[in-house]
Design brief:
2 domains; binds zinc ion; alpha/beta; Alkaline Phosphatase, subunit A; 409 residues; Gyrase A, domain 2
Length: 409
């Protein structure tokens, strides 16, 4: 089978062996490094010589949905349209949840491969990604979170709990990700898809730093499943949606810039609206705090906008402020789904809205999060040798399917 198919101005070879793309949510590279050093990830360690280890840049905002959608479309958010969990619709003056496939502006590689006759499977940890990842997909697509509700008609598979032999895990658990891998092994052996996409959750990475016993145990779990997938004959391509950093001061207190409060205090309460696109229904582990915000300005002329930009840039913890035009060019974002300004937090700082809008009671350990430039570098690891990659090419996490299908040695 050497047919090619085309998606979003790129062409992909149909795989001749089952190919599994794994998106390890929040996989700062140091997690793998530390797990290898502690002896917890011997299979990943073996890929240094037996496979290919590269790194690439994820999409900014370094959030889950924009990056998962970039990976499965092979394109940045300017093409697929998903630049966060929320955007502010200026026509209706409402914050709009972008988890629905109607906001997707491009076909996925998964759907197009299934249309071209390939067998495709998708397993995601959280259900919030399922409708986006499964858009127009003819094949298997379900979440670990709702694995007890799968039907042949809707999800292309049934009885997955029995097949996996695990109960439905809590949405806040390491087991939610383990379920994804266990299901992946079962599907690889039974259905033998041409392409399978496995996407985990970053619950563990939000709570535990690289090298901690909990983090190493999580990577040991993944290492074991990756080895099983490898031994069952799959091509493995492992990347991440984004990295993860501590967002605290030296004694573990969260470093938060409450941007809405700061703007209200200086310009009045209706001049600016801060949107945090990390906000989603599952905020317990990060309190809806990340290192990226977008700001909508009301009735601001150029002079006012310039003043707001210099004010925000002067705040401790802010790494950069960009105009809509600058941000949409530099980060390849859809200009109609971001505000007049895009603000990035420094590596150790997060951006909040108004203090009273954040429930921090779920933060039982020092805050770790993502969203900014400091979480942009992610691994690109393969269990095969690759060829034909130009040294000068800036690799992105959304090149992972191209690398896995078009560059196998
Ligand atoms: Zn993520
Ligand atoms: Zn996260």
């Amino acid at each position: 089978m050497s047919r090619a198919f085309h998606v979003n101005s790129r062409s992909y070879m149909m795989p001749s062996e089952p190919t599994i793309v794994v998106c390890v949510d929040g996989c700062e590279q140091e997690y793998i490094n530390q797990a290898i050093l502690s002896g917890s990830a011997p299979f990943l360690a073996s890929l240094q010589t037996a496979g290919t280890v590269l790194e690439g840049d994820c999409v900014v905002p370094s959030f889950t949905n924009p990056n998962n959608l970039s990976i499965v479309t092979g394109a940045p958010p300017s093409v697929h349209g998903i630049c966060g969990n929320f955007f502010f619709d200026e026509e209706t003056q409402a914050e709009v949840l972008m988890n629905d496939a109607r906001y997707l502006r491009a076909p996925t590689i998964l759907a197009e491969m299934s249309r071209a006759g390939g067998r495709v499977a998708v397993v995601t940890a959280k259900d919030k990604l399922r409708s986006l990842l499964g858009h127009r997909l003819e094949g298997i697509c379900f979440s670990a979170e709702k694995a007890d509700q799968v039907t042949q008609r809707e999800h292309g598979i049934e009885d997955i709990l029995d097949r996996v032999g695990m109960p439905v895990p809590s949405v806040y658990s390491a087991e939610l990700s383990e379920f994804v891998f266990a299901a992946g092994v079962s599907i690889l052996k039974k259905e033998r898809p041409d392409l399978m996409y496995l996407s985990t959750t970053d619950y563990v990475q939000h709570k535990h730093a690289p090298g901690t016993p909990e983090a190493n145990a999580f990577y040991a779990m993944m290492d074991g499943y990756l080895r099983r997938l490898h031994e069952a004959g799959a091509v493995l391509a492992i990347t991440a949606d984004h990295g993860m950093n501590a967002k605290t001061d030296s004694v573990g207190r969260p470093n938060i810039v409450f941007l809405q409060d700061r703007l209200d205090a200086r310009y009045g309460s209706h001049a600016a609206r801060v949107i945090l696109p990390i906000t989603d229904p599952y905020v317990v582990h990060h309190g809806a705090l990340g290192s990226y915000a977008t700001v909508y300005l009301r009735d601001a002329d150029d002079a006012r906008q310039g003043d707001v930009m210099s004010f925000i840039a002067s705040i401790r913890g802010v790494e950069a402020v960009l105009t809509r035009a600058e941000a949409s060019t530099r980060f390849e974002l859809p200009a109609d789904r971001i505000g007049e300004l895009v603000v990035l937090g420094e590596r150790l700082a997060v951006l909040g809205s108004a203090a009273q809008q954040h429930d921090l009671s779920g933060l039982t350990v020092p805050l770790r999060s993502h969203g900014g430039l400091s979480e942009q570098q992610v691994p690109l690891i393969f269990n095969r040798k690759l060829r034909g990659i130009d040294d000068a090419r800036r690799l992105r996490n959304f090149d992972v399917i191209d690398l896995a299908l078009n560059h196998l040695a």
